[in-house]
Amino acid sequence: MGKQKKARKYAVVKRMISLRDQRINPKDRAKAPVKKKEDPSAIKEREVPQHPSCLFFQYNTQLGPPYHILVDTNFINFSIKAKLDLVQSMMDCLYAKCIPCITDCVMAEIEKLGQRYRVALRIAKDPRFERLPCMHKGTYADDCLVQRVTQHKCYIVATVDKELKRRIRKIPGVPIMYISRHRYNIERMPDDYGAPRF
């Protein structure tokens, strides 16, 4: 007669007694949390984010030519794929002077992509592009762009990343530039005179 195989149970954890259990010595026992009584006369403090004054009217009044456009890593790569000149296509979309801005995080991301994306790196180092220094830790470009756009409402964000678009749509007064049908288009912007009408 062979030994009967016992089915092995997964995620079985050894049962432990609570630190407040009566069987533990009183000196080693965890003390019950003491609840502080709330003072009814105390003034309750709430932190309410200040609403920017530029959004007083129907749309963002800080946006105006020359437009400062924050460019994401994948926007440059997709522009190369679609054979679009970044500055010229931006001007064709908005009928105004555009200054593409590249943050240190985006530059670091392009450099990390390696030799295959050397054309994107050369475009990003164009003297017409404005470099924006980053003071925070890490080089995750999406968080950097969202943080910058939340603080300063004077930028348009150029990206084709769905996740980043979704995050920026939650911030009021920030238009998004994207690529569709081999040309640039823009959403949430009233002055997009050159944007294609579908």
UniProtKB/TrEMBL annotation:
Annotated GO biological process: ribosomal small subunit biogenesis; rRNA processing
Organism this protein belongs to: Apteryx owenii
Key word Methyltransferase present: no
Cross-referenced Pfam families: Fcf1 (PF04900)
Purpose of the protein: Part of the small subunit (SSU) processome, first precursor of the small eukaryotic ribosomal subunit. During the assembly of the SSU processome in the nucleolus, many ribosome biogenesis factors, an RNA chaperone and ribosomal proteins associate with the nascent pre-rRNA and work in concert to generate RNA folding, modifications, rearrangements and cleavage as well as targeted degradation of pre-ribosomal RNA by the RNA exosome.
Superkingdom, natural source: Eukaryota
Subunit structure: Part of the small subunit (SSU) processome, composed of more than 70 proteins and the RNA chaperone small nucleolar RNA (snoRNA) U3.
Protein's name according to its UniProt entry: rRNA-processing protein FCF1 homolog
Keywords: Nucleus, Ribosome biogenesis, rRNA processing
Every PIN domain range: 67-166
Disordered, as annotated region: 23-43
Family: Belongs to the UTP23/FCF1 family. FCF1 subfamily.
A Gene Ontology cellular-component term: small-subunit processome
Annotated InterPro entries: Fcf1/UTP23 (IPR006984), Fcf1_PIN (IPR037503), PIN-like_dom_sf (IPR029060), PIN_dom (IPR002716)
